[in-house]
TrEMBL record:
The chain crosses the membrane at residues 278-297, 309-329. SUPFAM superfamilies: CorA soluble domain-like, Magnesium transport protein CorA, transmembrane region. This is Magnesium transport protein CorA. The keyword Translocase does not apply. Keywords: Cell membrane, Ion transport, Magnesium, Membrane, Transmembrane, Transmembrane helix, Transport. The gene is corA. It is a multi-pass membrane protein. It comes from Shivajiella indica. The lineage of its organism: Bacteria, Pseudomonadati, Bacteroidota, Cytophagia, Cytophagales. It comes from the Bacteria. It holds the Pfam family CorA.
């Protein structure tokens, strides 16, 4: 990506300074405003929601001694979830999933974390996020998030993202169960596209969660001084959650396959019913067609041809034949 080609306009920066017994929130527009917080014992979280002002990003890179390739990874919104461990900071790239209009309209946003000993930098593509619970915890004086280090704070951010994966998984599961009930009960017609939309959602979730599990595994095994031993059980807990989500996604994918089979079976049964009805109607009309063909030959010496009740007799035969055959099919429970 050519960094110089990106349009420049002001960044929006939310700065949270916190520690045990301490909390401040600032909205800043200049990197120079961070300077007073750099040498404090307290930690701070800088949330960046606009990645298009390269001057300010360059200042951030210089201030925190971030490698230029790291900035490129942050700006590349097609980056695969990953973790890169450096001497004095760690980069984590994850995908945040959420929906505003139903599970069929999943939105994916890349979120990057850069954290060191006393700072956490988060880079988002948009201002909307799922971190309101983190902000609320920061304002709580008794919250663990204030007492522990930056690694615990990153754990809290990752936990919020993975928890949203769970929420989306539940929505997919509920939708699949609803579709199954509707298909089986035949209360209303279900389009095949509705089923495949759920399959698409499952694939999208799996595409994001699988590499997220891998990066959590790397963090678990890391010997970086930034990852404290007491934080590892929490990281392991998120790792196990991702494993569970992936297993559930596999189950839901199998459910989708079963749902398609049920759908196609129902369609086949309905077609069979239609064919059965058409066959019965055709069968009833076969002898009637035969009789009509015989009496339509117009031979000169045909019996009943000049009889004045012949027309009514033929109609009587037609009706009686149709009634007898329909009664026979009904007795055999063919319809």
């Amino acid at each position: 990506m050519d960094l110089d080609s990106i349009v420049k306009h002001p960044l929006s920066l939310d700065l949270y300074c916190f520690g045990e017994g301490h909390f401040e929130k600032h909205h800043i527009t200049s990197i120079s405003q961070i300077a007073p917080f750099l040498n404090q014992e307290n930690k701070f979280w800088l949330n960046i929601t606009d990645l298009e002002n390269m001057d300010l990003l360059e200042e951030i890179k210089n201030l925190f001694d971030i490698h230029s390739m790291t900035i490129e990874d942050i700006l590349n919104n097609q980056e695969r979830p990953k973790v890169e461990i450096f001497d004095h900071f760690i980069l984590i790239v994850v995908k945040m999933l959420y929906t505003r209009n139903g599970i069929e309209d999943l939105e994916t946003e890349q979120v990057s974390f850069v954290f060191g000993k006393n700072y956490i930098l988060t880079f988002q593509e948009h201002s909307f996020d799922i971190f309101d619970s983190i902000r609320a915890r920061l304002e709580n004086p008794t919250s663990k998030i204030r007492k522990h280090g930056t690694d615990y704070f990153v754990y809290a951010l990752l936990d919020a993202i993975v928890s949203e994966y769970y929420t989306l998984l539940e929505k997919v599961t509920d939708k699949i169960e609803m579709l199954e009930e509707v298909i089986v009960s035949e209360e209303k017609r279900v389009k095949l596209s509705e089923i495949y939309n759920q399959r698409k959602s499952i694939q999208q979730l799996k595409k994001v969660i699988w590499p997220t599990r891998e990066l959590l595994s790397i963090i678990k095994k890391s010997d970086s001084f930034l990852i404290k031993r007491r934080t590892l059980p929490f990281i392991n807990d998120i790792y196990e959650q991702t494993v569970e989500i992936i297993e559930n996604l596999e189950m839901q994918r199998e459910s989708i396959t079963t749902l398609v089979e049920i759908y196609m079976t129902n369609i086949s049964l309905k077609q069979n019913e239609v064919m059965k009805t058409l066959t019965i109607i055709a069968t009833i009309f076969i002898p009637l067609t035969f009789l009509a063909g015989v009496y339509g030959m117009n031979f000169h010496f045909m019996p009943e041809l000049k009889w004045k009740f012949g027309y009514y007799l033929v109609w009587g035969i037609f009706i009686a034949t149709a009634v007898i055959m329909a009664f026979y099919f009904k007795r055999r429970k063919w319809f």
